[in-house]
Every structure is written in structure tokens, then in C-alpha cells.
Structure of Phytanoyl-CoA dioxygenase:
Amino acid sequence: MSTFADDGFVLLPGFFSGGEVATLRGEVAAVLDAPSGLACERPHNMLVPLRWNDRAVRLALDEPRRVRALRDALGAEDLRWISGYVSTKEARSPALWWHQDWWCWNNPVSFRAPAPQVALLTYLTDTDAANGALRVLPGSHCRSVPLHALLPEAHDDSTRALPPDHAAMSDLPGQLTPQLRAGDAIVLDYRLLHGTHANASDVRRDGILLSFAPAWSELPADVRAHLILHPALPLPQDDPHPSAAAATLLPDYDGERASLELNRNAPAEFSISRAPQPA
């Protein structure tokens, strides 16, 4: 039986109820109607940042049932929330290229078995290959495949010039396309290769994207020092007053905060270690 550790992803059906999906649609509409100028506009996909006190984020974090389901699916001992985004894919838009989201390949934590960071994506409409569904390559988080040597940097402007026949745009042997109903969620290891199909429909595809560290206290100090600076998290002068459930998900760090050099390029050849890590 496949697992999150083996495949690099797991499905969480019914993560949000029908009524909660309707609420999220309203929140997404409000976010998109009041642009902040901070959106990340990748070709064929736009990410609009959310903060810890946005209603869409608080809806996700305030419900113990949801938090428990995520912890159980990941075996997460010290789950902490890092960031959130509204993710949109316009109608009649081409595929989003294959990429992975991990940003710290210079750090040895990249090659340990536990996921250093995960992304939870939930769509607000039923989604399949016809309207821009996610496609994933199971196992590509823990060992390299030939495509790794051909990929451009995950968030680089050079991806705008990729021709349709580039390997990063093509179907891959072994890829899967999870078909998600509105409110279902999929959780990805940040190192997993993924992309999307084209959205051939006449309707924009919206979703909520949240990132977490499943084992915050086990991350290297320099990685925590970097992540704690994420602008989605409360600033020292903020007065968060989160719910009891959400409060346990906000990361803390007592050391000096400092940014790390970003490296989003996975090695052309790599494999992760499944050996136990030193305490």
C-alpha cells in the first residue's frame, strides 16, 4: 500500500464541507477584487498571498477536525503553518510546467526522508484534467528522474518562454491526475514534481494553497530562522489573538532571524536518505 512517504502526496477527501467551500469562494472573490500588488503571476497560474489573519486561512486552521486529519495523514509530530495563497488558473489557459517548490536544496535537510515542508491545496470547484487539475509524479520527491536535469528554475521568468513541446510541459510516464471534488484537498511534499493540465474550460479554476512544516522543531535552526521571517506570519508588533487550535500551528523561534540563500534547483541526480537521523 502506497503512503505519503513513498508517493510524496496524500489525498484528504472532504477537507472542507460544502458550506465552508461557499464561504471560501466568497473570501477568494474579495481577495481578487482588492488586489494588493503582491501577486506572483506565473505563466498560466497566479498566486495571491494570504496572511495568518485572513478569513480563508483562519477557517482552515480554526477547525480541530481539519488539523487532526492533516496531522494524521502526515504523521506530523510538530505541525506548524507557514504561508497561504489564493491560487487561480484562468479559463482557456495552457498547462503549468513540471516543477517542485522546495527552495533550500543547498541544505542537507533536503536529502532526509521526512518532508521539510508541505503544500495543502484545495480546489473550490470539481477539478479534473479538463479544467486544469494538478498532475503529480509519485516518488519524485525522494529520487531524481531524467526530467530533473532539464527543468528551468521553478519560479524563474525563463519559464515564460518554454515551448509547448518542452519536456517540462509534457505528460510523463507514471504521472497521476487526482480528480478532486470541491472541498477535497491534496497534500504534497515540497520536493515532489508536479504541474497542471491545461484549463480547457470557460471558467477560472480557484483554490486555496497553504504550506506547513510537519516537524518544525526538527528542522535545522537556519531553516527555521528563515521560515519565521515569512510575511504571512504575525509580526512582533501584531496582536494575533488566534483561536486555541490556530495558536498551536503558529511557529516560534527564539534564535536570531536570518534569510538563507535560495536554491530552487534540485540536483540532476539525487536520492534521499531513509536512515534514522541523529537526535
